[in-house]
Recover the amino acids of this structure.
């Protein structure tokens, strides 16, 4: 928040930092980086069949379009996917993945 007692020029980095925080650009940038890391980890075959949701308490929610895909990702590839996300987005602090079946249309 700007200091109302401070009148005069301020560093541009301070002003931009406040603007980005107010507009949520940091969160948007983090989600775009997470999406890119997910797309690379899951591969082209499953990219369109999954949709990332929000991260809550360190758990990334992922929607998938079919029960068989849910089983494959949760039972066989979860560790690999989680590690790929951690490596690509170390600041994301993702501790777990939770999969659910649903619509993945944009």
């Amino acid at each position: 928040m700007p200091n109302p007692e401070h009148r005069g020029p301020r560093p541009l980095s301070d002003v931009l930092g406040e603007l980005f925080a107010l507009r949520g650009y940091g969160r948007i940038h983090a989600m775009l980086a997470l999406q890119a890391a997910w797309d690379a980890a899951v591969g082209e075959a499953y990219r369109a069949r999954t949709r990332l949701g929000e991260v809550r308490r360190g758990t990334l929610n992922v929607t998938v379009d079919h029960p068989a895909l849910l089983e494959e990702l949760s039972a066989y590839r979860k560790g690999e996917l989680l590690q790929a996300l951690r490596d690509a987005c170390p600041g994301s602090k993702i501790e777990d993945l939770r999969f659910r079946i649903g619509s993945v249309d944009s």
User: Anything to note?
Assistant: Residues 21 and 27 are 9 Å apart (CA to CA).
